[in-house]
Design brief:
The chain is α+β, with helices and mostly antiparallel strands. It has two helices and four strands. It has a four-stranded antiparallel sheet with strand order 2-3-1-4. β2 and β3 form a beta hairpin. α1 packs antiparallel against α2. The N and C termini lie far apart (about 35 Å).
Length: about 80
């Protein structure tokens, strides 16, 4: 049997994201998280789509939340 690495993809609502430049900065930093395959933040819809390895998804999401909070302190991820 051949095991394949699977990825999880999830779209998350962002609350109180007030700065398009900050959104771009968050996106760049989240893309550098170990295990993250892709990350996009849409400032206009206030949504983040993140795709990461299944076994790293939870940790990647926690790190993404920390990055968002550091760059824009009022920003929250709504699950």
């Amino acid at each position: 049997m051949i095991w394949e690495e699977t990825d999880m993809k999830r779209t998350i609502k962002l609350r109180d994201l007030d700065c398009a430049h900050c959104a771009a900065k968050m996106e760049r930093e989240i893309q550098r998280i170990d295990g993250v395959q892709s990350a996009q933040i849409n400032f206009f819809t206030q949504r983040m789509t993140i795709e990461a390895a299944d076994d790293r998804f939870g940790e990647a999401l926690l790190q993404a939340a920390r990055i968002c909070k550091r760059i824009e302190p009022d920003c929250e991820l709504v699950f």
